[in-house]
Amino acid sequence: MPRSYNMSRRAERQAETRRRIVEAAVELHGSLGPARTPLSLVAERAGVQRHTLYAHFPDERSLFLACSGLAMERDPLDDPTPWRAIPKRSPRLRTGVAALYGWYQRNAQLAACVLRDSEHHVLTREIVQLRMAPTMRLYHEVLGEGLDSGQGAVLQLMLGFHAWRSLVRESGVAQEVAVDLAVQAVLGAGREEWRALPAAE
User: What is the spatial distance between Cα 23 and Cα 149, in angstroms, rounded to a whole number?
Assistant: First the structure.
């Protein structure tokens, strides 16, 4: 019995150490960015030695997988599949954009750092593709149903994090107004709307 108890306590301590390391990585990735966070800093923030960190995570990729997994577990992107049941385009778009913009608002600092680094840091780009790209493709598929090519192009733009940040953080537009503007921009980009515009002088 004592041996089993000691093994259980050891496993608990190891799990706690692993959790501290992962949470330290999430915190640093959301403040400095993944590309600017050396493993030595993660170990320092977690209060462990580097050899302890490597015992749990032998390389950066394994740590990135763990911390991105934790972040998405805590606040996953909404599943867009149920939105297919919304028959009209405008309310379907509004539902989807509101859900995504809400996620951006709750995760603004982490998303900004990670998406910035994904533009030049290969590992960060790989993890973003793994964690976010499949759901984002489904967003485009579900919300883009029935849209023409121009509307689809604007939809892709308006679903991006930088569109949300430009509207809400940089322009000071209220969240619900930003959603309405995004929907109007998408629907207003249709070919029929283009034909209605006055010719340039």
Answer: 42
Whole-prediction pTM:
0.88
Question: pLDDT digit string (tens) for 83-104?
Answer: 999 999 999 999 999 999 999 9
Tokens 């994090």 sit at which residue?
A: 161
Cβ neighbours of residue 68 under 8 Å, at least 6 residues apart? 127, 130, 131
Domain(s) of CATH 1.10.10.60: residues in the chain: 2-74
Task: Among 3.40.50.720, 1.20.1640.10, 1.10.260.40, 1.10.10.60, name the CATH number for the domain at 2-74.
Answer: 1.10.10.60
Q: Rounded CA gap, 172 and 4, in Å?
A: 58
